[in-house]
Specification:
Elements lengths: L1 H26 L5 H4 L3
């Protein structure tokens, strides 16, 4: 059960990072908005 919790926390931090990267790219206007809707 602890392993699952660890995995979920890692995935959660990856998810936040991906969202952040998406927003940074959006500001540079080199990334389509619809791709950011996934995050």
């Amino acid at each position: 059960m602890r392993l699952l919790h660890f995995f979920l926390s890692v995935m959660g931090s990856f998810h936040k990072t991906a969202r952040y990267d998406c927003l940074v790219l959006l500001k540079k206007r080199c990334f389509p908005l619809y791709k950011c809707q996934k995050f």
